[in-house]
Amino acid sequence: MIQHMSLLIIVFLIFTGCSDREDPVPPKEGKIIVLMYHRIVDGDATNLYERSIADLEADLKYLNENDINVICFNDLVSVKESGKMPNGNSAIITFDDGDHSWFTLVKPLLLKYKMEATFFLWTYMMGHDSFLTWNEVEEMSYYTNGNGERPFTFGSHTYSHTYLLDRKSEFSTAAEYNAFLDYELRESRKLIESHTPGEISILSLPYGNGADDADIISAAVRNGYRFIRTSKWGAIQDAAVNLYSIPSLPMLDTSTPDEIGYYLNQ
Q1: pLDDT grade, residue 6 (50/70/90)?
Q2: What pLDDT does 26 receive?
Q3: 198: Cα within 13 Å, side-chain hemisphere
Q4: In this structure, what is the dihedral angle of CA atoms 150, 82, 242, 69, given to the nearest 10 degrees?
Q5: Any residues with CB less than 8 A from the CB of 235 and at least 6 apart, and which?
Q6: pTM listed for this prediction
Q7: How far is the CA of 222 from the CAs of 123, 214, 215, in angstroms?
Q8: Beta carbons within 8 Å of 45's beta carbon, 6+ residues apart
């Protein structure tokens, strides 16, 4: 009788799923933050939009130590199509303008941490002053890692880095204004594509000017862009992201790595 009762207890425990181990907690959907950098300096920053290489490395360490996955803009298409945010928090790393520090300081650091990034070029300035040369852009864009992947992507910061929306009043007709937009977006894209592999599909608005403007979005679409990164502060919080109005977090001289966690709620 005792043996029979023991057998019934064992069977009951098996079929009721009783176990010393708890069921695994399902992964939690996270947010996506787009980090915006400009010039990186070896030493102390001298203005708000510079960031020291030491601070940049602290940011990258923060991403690693807090399990924030570094992704690219194309991953946003998968997010939107699936209707589901990635498990855990993610970050997209971007740089604006085209400073030579990207080649001398940023590239080695990103390779050290095995992270990818997108670089937005002010194309008129390439090869002038402290800007990258086209040869350096080519070397970065064609670089492949051990997995055959290209970690450095380039995008447009327009041809002349001008205010796209604020200049609208200068033009007498909508056709003239649209021609201006087309030139800024088309010429920059054409130049970058002549020095890099693949299509240029990402636009960063100079000064953040013109975010959500219908004319600028239309110009981006007809000139082959699939994404617009704005300067609106914030994180991507759900899968229904507007790819032509992507928010970002400027990483300035005064920024701390903890600000990344603040926008990701971690």
Answers
A1: very low
A2: 55
A3: 12
A4: -40
A5: 31, 32, 33, 247, 249, 263, 264
A6: 0.89
A7: 20, 12, 11
A8: 51, 52, 55, 253
Spatial separation of the C-alpha atoms in residues 1 and 5, rounded to whole Å:
6
Spell out the CATH class of 30-264. alpha beta
Question: Is residue 187 within 8 Å of 143, Cβ to Cβ?
Answer: no
Give residue-wise pLDDT tens across range 142-156.
Answer: 999 999 999 999 999
> How distant is the alpha carbon of residue 8 from its chain centre?
58
Interhelix angle for 174-193 vs 214-222, to 10°? Answer: 40
Where on the phi/psi map is residue 127: left (φ > 0), alpha (ψ -120 to 50), or beta? left
> Would the pLDDT of 22 be above 80?
no
For all residues of the chain together, what is the average pLDDT? 92
| Cα separation, 135 vs 182, whole angstroms | 26
1, 2, 17, 20 from 7: Cα distances, Å: 10, 9, 16, 19
Place of tokens 């649209």: 178
Q: Which of 172, 86, 89, 158 is nearest to 120 (CA)?
A: 158
Question: How many Å apart are CA 167 and CA 206, to the nearest integer?
Answer: 12
Residue carrying the six token digits 């086209």: 134
